[in-house]
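Dear all,

This email documents one entry for the complex benchmark we are building for the journal club exercise. For each entry we list the sequence lines for every component of the assembly. Then comes the predicted three-dimensional structure of the complex as a C-alpha coordinate string, followed by one or two observations. Please use this as the template for your own entries, and keep the labels exactly as they appear.
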Amino acid sequence: EADIYQTPRYLVIGTGKKITLECSQTMGHDKMYWYQQDPGMELHLIHYSYGVNSTEKGDLSSESTVSRIRTEHFPLTLESARPSHTSQYLCASSEWEREGRETQYFGPGTRLLVL
Amino acid sequence: SQQGEEDPQALSIQEGENATMNCSYKTSINNLQWYRQNSGRGLVHLILIRSNEREKHSGRLRVTLDTSKKSSSLLITASRAADTASYFCATEAQGGSEKLVFGKGTKLTVNP
Protein backbone atom coordinates (compact mmCIF):
# COMPACT_ATOMS: atom_id res chain seq x y z
CA GLU A 1 0.00 0.00 0.00
CA ALA A 2 1.29 3.42 -0.96
CA ASP A 3 1.41 6.22 1.61
CA ILE A 4 -1.09 8.41 -0.19
CA TYR A 5 -4.43 9.24 1.32
CA GLN A 6 -7.66 10.69 0.06
CA THR A 7 -10.62 11.97 1.99
CA PRO A 8 -13.50 11.64 1.90
CA ARG A 9 -13.80 8.22 0.30
CA TYR A 10 -17.43 8.84 -0.59
CA LEU A 11 -19.31 12.10 -0.88
CA VAL A 12 -22.94 12.73 -1.76
CA ILE A 13 -23.75 16.40 -2.09
CA GLY A 14 -26.34 18.72 -3.57
CA THR A 15 -25.95 20.89 -6.65
CA GLY A 16 -24.29 24.24 -6.05
CA LYS A 17 -22.28 23.24 -3.00
CA LYS A 18 -18.57 23.95 -2.73
CA ILE A 19 -16.45 20.88 -2.06
CA THR A 20 -12.81 20.14 -1.46
CA LEU A 21 -11.30 16.72 -2.02
CA GLU A 22 -8.20 16.13 0.05
CA CYS A 23 -5.07 14.32 -1.02
CA SER A 24 -1.96 13.85 1.08
CA GLN A 25 1.19 11.80 0.61
CA THR A 26 3.98 11.07 3.06
CA MET A 27 6.57 9.92 0.55
CA GLY A 28 8.04 13.35 -0.13
CA HIS A 29 7.17 13.14 -3.81
CA ASP A 30 7.42 16.33 -5.81
CA LYS A 31 4.95 15.33 -8.51
CA MET A 32 1.25 14.94 -7.83
CA TYR A 33 -1.73 14.34 -10.09
CA TRP A 34 -5.51 14.34 -10.10
CA TYR A 35 -7.39 12.00 -12.42
CA GLN A 36 -11.09 11.69 -13.11
CA GLN A 37 -12.46 8.24 -13.87
CA ASP A 38 -16.01 7.27 -14.74
CA PRO A 39 -17.06 3.67 -13.93
CA GLY A 40 -15.40 1.16 -16.23
CA MET A 41 -13.60 3.87 -18.14
CA GLU A 42 -10.07 5.18 -18.54
CA LEU A 43 -8.41 7.74 -16.31
CA HIS A 44 -8.30 11.33 -17.50
CA LEU A 45 -5.66 13.67 -16.14
CA ILE A 46 -7.29 16.89 -14.93
CA HIS A 47 -4.53 18.55 -12.89
CA TYR A 48 -0.90 18.01 -12.04
CA SER A 49 1.85 19.64 -10.06
CA TYR A 50 5.61 19.31 -10.22
CA GLY A 51 6.23 20.92 -6.86
CA VAL A 52 5.17 23.58 -4.42
CA ASN A 53 3.43 26.52 -6.08
CA SER A 54 3.34 24.66 -9.40
CA THR A 55 -0.01 23.60 -10.84
CA GLU A 56 -1.02 22.80 -14.40
CA LYS A 57 -4.22 21.77 -16.12
CA GLY A 58 -4.33 18.28 -17.51
CA ASP A 59 -5.58 16.84 -20.75
CA LEU A 60 -9.25 16.86 -19.74
CA SER A 61 -10.84 20.22 -19.12
CA SER A 62 -12.21 20.49 -15.63
CA GLU A 63 -14.04 23.18 -13.69
CA SER A 64 -12.13 22.21 -10.58
CA THR A 65 -9.10 24.03 -9.21
CA VAL A 66 -6.10 22.81 -7.25
CA SER A 67 -3.42 24.27 -5.02
CA ARG A 68 0.02 23.08 -3.89
CA ILE A 69 1.13 25.07 -0.88
CA ARG A 70 2.90 22.15 0.76
CA THR A 71 4.72 19.25 -0.84
CA GLU A 72 2.56 16.64 0.82
CA HIS A 73 -0.83 18.20 0.18
CA PHE A 74 -2.70 18.63 -3.13
CA PRO A 75 -6.38 19.48 -2.57
CA LEU A 76 -8.93 19.75 -5.38
CA THR A 77 -11.83 22.20 -5.11
CA LEU A 78 -15.13 22.49 -6.94
CA GLU A 79 -16.69 25.90 -6.27
CA SER A 80 -20.17 24.86 -7.35
CA ALA A 81 -20.82 21.15 -7.76
CA ARG A 82 -23.07 19.92 -10.57
CA PRO A 83 -24.42 16.45 -11.45
CA SER A 84 -21.95 16.35 -14.37
CA HIS A 85 -19.14 16.31 -11.78
CA THR A 86 -20.30 12.91 -10.52
CA SER A 87 -17.31 10.61 -10.94
CA GLN A 88 -14.42 8.99 -9.14
CA TYR A 89 -11.43 11.24 -8.46
CA LEU A 90 -8.03 9.62 -8.05
CA CYS A 91 -4.96 11.32 -6.67
CA ALA A 92 -1.46 10.07 -7.45
CA SER A 93 2.13 11.04 -6.77
CA SER A 94 5.52 10.13 -8.17
CA GLU A 95 9.19 10.83 -7.70
CA TRP A 96 11.22 12.91 -10.10
CA GLU A 97 13.39 10.53 -12.13
CA ARG A 98 15.80 11.73 -14.74
CA GLU A 99 15.42 8.77 -17.02
CA GLY A 100 11.69 9.03 -17.43
CA ARG A 101 10.79 5.89 -15.54
CA GLU A 102 8.29 7.28 -13.19
CA THR A 103 5.92 5.03 -11.34
CA GLN A 104 2.80 6.63 -9.98
CA TYR A 105 1.38 5.76 -6.60
CA PHE A 106 -2.36 6.12 -6.27
CA GLY A 107 -4.66 6.94 -3.42
CA PRO A 108 -7.88 4.95 -2.90
CA GLY A 109 -10.02 7.54 -4.67
CA THR A 110 -13.02 9.66 -3.79
CA ARG A 111 -16.38 8.70 -5.25
CA LEU A 112 -18.41 11.86 -5.73
CA LEU A 113 -22.14 11.90 -6.36
CA VAL A 114 -23.77 15.26 -7.00
CA LEU A 115 -27.55 15.23 -6.81
CA SER B 1 -3.31 12.02 -29.10
CA GLN B 2 -1.32 9.17 -27.70
CA GLN B 3 -3.48 6.70 -25.91
CA GLY B 4 -3.16 3.11 -24.82
CA GLU B 5 -6.00 0.93 -25.96
CA GLU B 6 -6.41 -2.38 -24.24
CA ASP B 7 -8.12 -5.41 -25.63
CA PRO B 8 -10.12 -7.31 -24.84
CA GLN B 9 -12.35 -4.94 -22.89
CA ALA B 10 -13.39 -7.84 -20.67
CA LEU B 11 -12.02 -11.31 -20.10
CA SER B 12 -13.45 -14.13 -18.02
CA ILE B 13 -11.38 -17.24 -17.29
CA GLN B 14 -11.15 -20.11 -14.83
CA GLU B 15 -8.68 -20.23 -12.00
CA GLY B 16 -5.41 -21.77 -13.14
CA GLU B 17 -5.72 -20.55 -16.72
CA ASN B 18 -3.49 -17.90 -18.21
CA ALA B 19 -4.82 -14.43 -19.00
CA THR B 20 -3.45 -12.31 -21.81
CA MET B 21 -4.25 -8.65 -22.29
CA ASN B 22 -3.02 -6.42 -25.06
CA CYS B 23 -2.33 -2.72 -25.31
CA SER B 24 -1.74 -0.58 -28.39
CA TYR B 25 -0.54 3.00 -28.49
CA LYS B 26 0.07 5.63 -31.12
CA THR B 27 3.34 7.50 -30.63
CA SER B 28 6.92 6.83 -29.55
CA ILE B 29 7.31 6.16 -25.87
CA ASN B 30 9.91 6.18 -23.10
CA ASN B 31 8.25 3.37 -21.27
CA LEU B 32 5.00 1.48 -20.88
CA GLN B 33 3.56 0.51 -17.55
CA TRP B 34 0.80 -1.81 -16.42
CA TYR B 35 -1.41 -1.02 -13.46
CA ARG B 36 -4.10 -2.98 -11.68
CA GLN B 37 -7.27 -1.57 -10.16
CA ASN B 38 -9.56 -3.45 -7.82
CA SER B 39 -13.18 -2.35 -7.96
CA GLY B 40 -13.66 1.07 -6.39
CA ARG B 41 -10.00 1.47 -5.48
CA GLY B 42 -6.94 3.31 -6.72
CA LEU B 43 -4.44 1.87 -9.16
CA VAL B 44 -1.45 -0.21 -8.17
CA HIS B 45 1.68 -0.28 -10.29
CA LEU B 46 2.55 -3.78 -11.52
CA ILE B 47 5.44 -3.53 -13.94
CA LEU B 48 7.31 -1.08 -16.16
CA ILE B 49 9.03 -1.92 -19.43
CA ARG B 50 11.35 0.55 -21.12
CA SER B 51 11.28 1.25 -24.82
CA ASN B 52 14.58 -0.59 -25.34
CA GLU B 53 13.33 -3.74 -23.60
CA ARG B 54 11.36 -6.50 -25.28
CA GLU B 55 10.27 -8.66 -22.38
CA LYS B 56 10.12 -8.42 -18.63
CA HIS B 57 9.02 -10.79 -15.88
CA SER B 58 7.78 -10.22 -12.36
CA GLY B 59 6.45 -13.24 -10.51
CA ARG B 60 3.47 -14.57 -12.49
CA LEU B 61 3.50 -11.54 -14.78
CA ARG B 62 5.16 -11.39 -18.16
CA VAL B 63 5.13 -8.22 -20.24
CA THR B 64 6.26 -7.90 -23.82
CA LEU B 65 6.80 -4.76 -25.84
CA ASP B 66 6.94 -4.46 -29.61
CA THR B 67 7.80 -0.87 -30.46
CA SER B 68 7.58 -1.54 -34.21
CA LYS B 69 3.93 -2.49 -33.78
CA LYS B 70 3.39 -0.05 -30.92
CA SER B 71 1.90 -2.77 -28.79
CA SER B 72 2.41 -4.54 -25.51
CA SER B 73 0.93 -7.60 -23.86
CA LEU B 74 0.49 -8.58 -20.24
CA LEU B 75 0.35 -12.27 -19.43
CA ILE B 76 -0.77 -13.50 -16.03
CA THR B 77 0.05 -17.16 -15.60
CA ALA B 78 -1.80 -19.60 -13.36
CA SER B 79 -4.46 -17.04 -12.55
CA ARG B 80 -6.17 -16.87 -9.18
CA ALA B 81 -9.54 -15.52 -8.12
CA ALA B 82 -7.64 -12.71 -6.37
CA ASP B 83 -6.36 -11.54 -9.78
CA THR B 84 -9.88 -10.35 -10.59
CA ALA B 85 -9.48 -6.64 -11.32
CA SER B 86 -9.18 -4.14 -14.15
CA TYR B 87 -5.79 -3.84 -15.79
CA PHE B 88 -4.60 -0.63 -17.44
CA CYS B 89 -1.62 0.12 -19.59
CA ALA B 90 -0.08 3.58 -19.37
CA THR B 91 2.46 5.17 -21.66
CA GLU B 92 4.96 7.93 -21.12
CA ALA B 93 5.64 9.81 -24.33
CA GLN B 94 9.20 10.04 -25.60
CA GLY B 95 10.72 13.47 -24.99
CA GLY B 96 7.46 14.52 -23.53
CA SER B 97 6.03 15.92 -20.40
CA GLU B 98 6.56 12.84 -18.20
CA LYS B 99 2.82 12.50 -17.84
CA LEU B 100 1.22 9.09 -18.21
CA VAL B 101 -1.64 8.40 -20.59
CA PHE B 102 -3.88 5.54 -19.53
CA GLY B 103 -5.90 3.20 -21.70
CA LYS B 104 -9.49 2.14 -21.06
CA GLY B 105 -8.50 -1.06 -19.30
CA THR B 106 -9.32 -4.75 -19.48
CA LYS B 107 -11.70 -6.09 -16.87
CA LEU B 108 -10.47 -9.53 -15.86
CA THR B 109 -12.67 -11.96 -13.97
CA VAL B 110 -11.11 -15.15 -12.67
CA ASN B 111 -13.72 -17.67 -11.65
CA PRO B 112 -12.89 -20.09 -8.83
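Observations: Residues 51 and 60 of chain A are 21 Å apart (CA to CA). The first strand of chain A starts at residue 4 and ends at 7.
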